[in-house]
Amino acid sequence: MNFDPGVTGFMLLATSLVMLMTPGLAFFYGGLAGKRNILGIMIQSFVSMGITTILWYFVGYSLCFSGGEGAVIGNLSKAMMHGVTLNSAYSGNHKLPEFVFMAYQMMFAIITPALITGAFMNRVTFKAYIIFLVMWQLLVYYPFVHMIWGGGLLAQWGVLDFAGGIVVHATAGFAALASVIYVGKRRDTTNTPNSIPLIALGTGLLWFGWYGFNAGSALDVNAVTGLAFLNTDVAASFAAITWMIIEWSRARKPKFVGLLTGAVAGLATVTPAAGFVSLNCAVVIGIASGIVCYIAVDLKNRMKWDDALDVWGVHGIGGVLGTILLGVFASKAINPAGANGLIHGGSDFFFKQVVATLGAAAYAFIFTYIMLMVINVVSKVRVPEHIEDAGLDSGIHGEVAYDSGVF
Fold first, then answer.
1. How many Cα atoms are found within 13 Å in the side-chain-facing hemisphere of 147?
2. Does the pLDDT of residue 191 top 80, yes or no?
3. How far apart are CA 229 and CA 212, in angstroms?
4. Is the pLDDT confidence value at 387 over 90?
5. pTM
6. How far apart are CA 147 and CA 134, in angstroms?
7. Residues 310/297, Cβ–Cβ less than 8 Å
8. Measured distance CA(393)–CA(398) in Å, rounded
9. Can you give the residue ranges of every domain in the chain?
């Protein structure tokens, strides 16, 4: 098989960029955490890189991308990469080796459950998280990957998700909300970010990696790839400034953390639409995400849900909003492989996007809650009070992020 070296090289670069997002997320969350829980939150991202890779090799890739057309989940015909050779091509683009496609999708699987961890910071035992990491992928993430990207039920129905509005952000965000409600509030909710520069570093890495996340999801090198790249940057920029303006007008001060949070909200919201909508629509999506995600975080605070790092408001609501706006703005003139949204006469497509998005959010919420109940029978989910008070860094991991003389 003669693979295209340009496409293959680009996809290897995109894979590397998405891989970089997981350490970026660890830095982002680590900076937001209180000083006694920096390592506890960061290790939850890094451990996903190891465990998810193992799980992906054994069964994950096969369950997501083999067999089961029109089904909820695939089969095990490609378990341990059975039948995948150096000459195997990705079925959706024969210019790309299947090994590269497998690696690219693996990076998505790594970061998705790690997104959830920001919600239950300082409250969940490491052992319970490891069990959760495995079960959540098997019962929530893999089915939605297969249903949308693996030719399964929702793909056959006509649902679109360019890079993970449903598959990644809606499922992770509503799983985060379920986790918060199940685990309960922190004993000390006054923890302030230990390092805003660390948050900025994490945001920069996430933003940089997101070009691979969205542009790479074209799985080719063409005009759609470039559009997805530009839409990603534009939406993030408009969302960041929108969030900053809202917060500035309310708090009378321009907040750096607010600017950074708004950027991440814009990135999450444009993800499902990046390769299906025009640049002007990406501007609207960015502004909408800055407003709607800010309102969602404010609602979370009013409801007293202790989503410590706003995973639900930023990723959950961002993913839902972006996927629904895809149903509004999608245009076949932009991407013939897509669909026409509501403003182009595609009312049926809009309806499917709304139903699929709300259904995915509900599924992720319910299954995550039940899953935590089951895990709690095997291993206590919530940390003991004395460990929570001392901090997970020393209480569970026996390490601290900084020498005591730093503070």
1. 19
2. no
3. 8
4. yes
5. 0.96
6. 19
7. yes
8. 6
9. 5-401
Q: How far apart are CA 33 and CA 41, in angstroms?
A: 7
pLDDT by residue (tens digit) across 25-57? Answer: 999 999 999 889 999 999 999 999 999 999 999
Phi-psi sector, 73: left (phi>0), alpha (psi -120 to 50), beta: beta
- Single-letter amino acid code for the residue at 290: G
Tokens of 190: 């006054």
pLDDT value at 186 more than 50: yes
- Which band of pLDDT confidence, cut at 50, 70 and 90, is reported for residue 407? very low
CATH topology of domain 5-401: Ammonium transporter fold (1.10.3430)
Rounded Cα distance, 336 and 325, in Å: 18
Question: How far from 47 is each of 23, 59, 110, 113, 343, CA to CA, in Å?
Answer: 10, 18, 9, 11, 44
The residue behind tokens 């993970």 is 164
At 296-328, the pLDDT tens digits run 999 999 999 999 889 999 999 999 999 999 999
What does the DSSP 8-state code read for residue 52? Answer: H
- Given a cut of 60, is residue 196 above it in pLDDT? yes
Q: What is the pLDDT of residues 103-113, one digit of tens each?
A: 999 999 999 99
| Helix ranges restricted to H, 56-166 | 61-65, 98-116, 126-136, 142-149, 153-157
The first and second tokens of residue 242, run together, are 């929108």
What DSSP element (H or E) covers 93?
A: strand 93-97
Pairwise CA distance, residues 187 & 388, whole Å: 8
Listed in sequence order, the residues at least 6 apart from 52 whose beta carbon sits closer than 8 Å to its beta carbon are 60, 106, 109, 110, 113, 133, 137
Helix residue ranges per DSSP H, 171-222 = 171-183, 196-215
- And the tokens for 375? 């895990």
